[in-house]
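Team,

Forwarding the record for the chain on the shared tracking sheet. I've put the sequence and predicted structure together so nobody has to dig through attachments.
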Amino acid sequence: MSTSARQRFRVSAIIITAVVLLLLFLFEYPTMLFGLLLIPCAYLYVCLREKREEPMVSPVPSFPTIEAMVSFYGDPDYAITADATRANEPSGTVFCYYEPQVVVAGGTAVLVSDITEIALANTSTPYTVGSFQLVIHTRQRNRPMVKVDCGRDAAFASAVVGELFTQVRLMGEKARKGNTNSQISNN
């Protein structure tokens, strides 16, 4: 729930509480006493529960330059150019690292185990010409999706998504084979 949605929820909860208390006062005085005690306590409980929830912090970093990315992880096992006009910038590339099981898309590192979906999005509207985007959905609360512009060519953008999907699938298969081999050697 976003911050503005929470504020709207709180305001609406206060208004509903005031209306309920006025109606209770008009119809039944003893019930109003119960409402005066119960409703504010429930509201405070909801507010305190929201404050306790802290977003998960991802241990995987973001990188401002390709040089920082390469110095941290080394040379990539597979590189995909998402946008040819920005191929020398992190925002135009997708790097796949098989050993740490990480995909770095647009300068943002994502663990392969956190990826839930890889999709293609068209940002065009009836009034503007937009570009296609590679969208990686993740399980991370603080970073639910990573978007990388792929230019205005639908076939090229589809090829980028297909390449990344293939590489993520290969990384997953290698991880499963590695786990299977280690389990067999332990027995």
